[in-house]
Amino acid sequence: MANSPSIGRREQEILTAIVETFISTGEPVGSRTLARRNPEHLSAATIRNVMADLAEAGLLEQPHTSAGRVPSVEGYRYYVERLSGTVKLAPEEEKTIEDVFHGTADVQDFMERTSHVLSLISQGVGVAVTAGGPKQGLDHIHFQRLADQKVLAVVVTRGGLVRDRVLRMSCDLPQSDLDLAARYINENFRGWSLEDAQRELQSRLECERSEYDKLMRSVEELCRSGALNSDADSPDIFVEGTANLLAREEDRQRLRTLLRALEEKQRIVQLLSAYLDTRQEAVRVVIGLEDAMPDLSNFVLIGAPARSGQEVLGRLAVIGPTRMDYQHTMSAVSYITRLFDKLLNDSE
Amino acid sequence: MANSPSIGRREQEILTAIVETFISTGEPVGSRTLARRNPEHLSAATIRNVMADLAEAGLLEQPHTSAGRVPSVEGYRYYVERLSGTVKLAPEEEKTIEDVFHGTADVQDFMERTSHVLSLISQGVGVAVTAGGPKQGLDHIHFQRLADQKVLAVVVTRGGLVRDRVLRMSCDLPQSDLDLAARYINENFRGWSLEDAQRELQSRLECERSEYDKLMRSVEELCRSGALNSDADSPDIFVEGTANLLAREEDRQRLRTLLRALEEKQRIVQLLSAYLDTRQEAVRVVIGLEDAMPDLSNFVLIGAPARSGQEVLGRLAVIGPTRMDYQHTMSAVSYITRLFDKLLNDSE
DNA sequence: TTTAGCACTCCAGAGTCAACAGTGCTAAAA
DNA sequence: TTTTAGCACTGTTGACTCTGGAGTGCTAAA
């Protein structure tokens, strides 16, 4: 803020104290209350003066004249900024989390457990998505004939994501043709992104249209039925902990819009990719989601991308009310991302 | 109820009227209000008498002395029972539903859309699960080596359910061995239930322990890693429409327990299989879930199994407050089950 | 058997009031 | 110059009261 110069050490401490008491009690906090539980013994009057300054700087708000102060959105931001250095978790909690992830075999599984853990240890909703999307590198594909004109396509990406999809074909192909087609794709496009593979395949098919052989016809048919599609609906999305929202006293209407938003999987993906982009390393805290989603103002996102080496394989976050334990949630998110990296490097 | 003999035609009509006005208004309904909107012109006094009878029979309740009447759980049951004959849906609504299911390729997909549709057209939560479980008949299995000691197993059941799972092996097998193992299992156990297949395999392995060849060793290793396991966590579970719950005025605490229950996927499966058993044909309405889940008393389940021919491939239901549009929801559930049967028979 | 009338009950909302927590300001103390 | 004590002022909250209205149950008449 422009007024930040006026914020000295004492102001910071008082702001922190206010935010923390407000988070734990939920009531506007007054100078007297603060004076009582304050380490340095400042009188209520002094605190009042500081509070007036902070309010003027836009970091605090006052519900009405004779009430205590409540942190403003800016106030939360300032608080969190000052916090972000200190990140650690109680060892026994680290242990608990680690136990939950014991035996995790693949990314989907990991993400599912992530949303669960996050919902347990935070006051918000645990959200986790796999990266999905057309940018994924192809590891390998397999086709299996299920019934007349129905084929199961199983696509495995480099990152270890598995996606299966039942294709409805316009003609019936025997298993032997499917195997050949799969082999062709695997041999030629291993490591390509799904997007590129599909495009290249398309153009090859067009070029050589004259000299079609049976193999290429199968491949074309499979592509047309969407074997390589990995469009919008494809990422896996895990949401858990919606019940947490009802614990706190909150506006019903707002909770409802949040719940509704969480049910539109599209929007979750948007939200997470909007705020947790690829380059960013650490845990990110976004206070007030109104930029990306106007109806989710006054909610908070604490999240990070899950990467194995350089590649982003998913994103995880907690979405909750402004009144939540930032410190703790940030630590947990951070710890889980580290765990992710570790578990996935161990096993590949 | 024991008192049913005292319930004549007029009583029934008045009960129905009370239930319906209460569902739409949410307020206890009094004799005067009812008298005004009643087709046959009965006076408030007459209605009062009938209401007293119904209350005595346990079908109505009175929040307090000078308030109107509210249907009791028994009252709802009676109301629904009388209703169950008439089931039809507006043609344009049938159309809408059908559109949503357009292009559905597999059971999982169908169930996902089901939960979505149900959440849209009801005032409750749309829930759908695939049948899963160890009883499923095996159609075919495929193994794919992913990395050192990591194998992807894809299992397709008779009903068209696809389940993939990454196995962590204790030794590394080349793809060729995996293919042989898959072929062995497919040739020997096609049509068997997963449970039986696993058991039989187990015993064969034990018998012939002496004359182990490479093939059987692979098979054993795969089985041990859980290739055929299809235990508790395996069914797919789709829940949507939790936001609907917040629309109605309801006790926060109760909503919370419901939300929490819906997040424990175990319990959803239990709930649905408890009430929607295999033999039962039609839509089932359970008013008051307290038998199976004490904490979900006062909620209602309206659901049905989804079958293709004789086999049950999934279950679908709406879970919501007692105050909901029974008629409509029942029709929708019924329509979707018919659609399921149709779509899945078309395509196999 | 149905209806009109009446006394009675209880709730919901409006209004009043006092206690209370908190503020801002001023003047004194450090 | 900074901190603190004191004091007047303000808005909220909960308790209390009161009143109108909706609804009931009962009785007596149609």
Using brief descriptors, characterize the structure shown.
homodimer, 348 residues, alpha+beta, 5-stranded antiparallel beta sheet, 13 helices, 18% strand, elongated, DNA-binding
* Coarse shape of chain A: elongated
**Mean pLDDT over the full residue set of chain A:** 88
Ends apart, CA distance between termini of chain A = 47 Å
Helical content of chain A (DSSP H or I, runs of 4+): 40-55%
Largest sheet of chain A: 5 strands, antiparallel
Strand % of chain A is 15-25%
- How are the strands of the biggest sheet of chain A laid out side by side? 7-3-10-9-8
Task: Characterise the protein shown here.
2 copies of one chain form a homodimer. With 348 residues, the first copy, chain A, is an alpha+beta fold. Helices cover 47% and strands 18% of the residues of chain A. Chain A is built from 13 helices and 10 strands. The two termini of chain A are 47 Å apart. Chain A binds chain B through residues 103, 105-106, 109, 119, 139-140, 142, 144, 146-148, 150, 152, 154, 156, 160, 162, 164-168, 240-243, 246-247, 252, 255-257, 259-260, 263, 347-348, and chain B through 103, 105-106, 109, 119, 139-140, 142, 144, 146-148, 150, 152, 154, 156, 160, 162, 164-168, 240-243, 246-247, 252, 255-257, 259-260, 263, 347-348. The first copy, chain A, binds a DNA duplex (30 and 30 nucleotides) through residues 28, 30-33, 42-46, 48-49, 51-52, 62, 64-68.
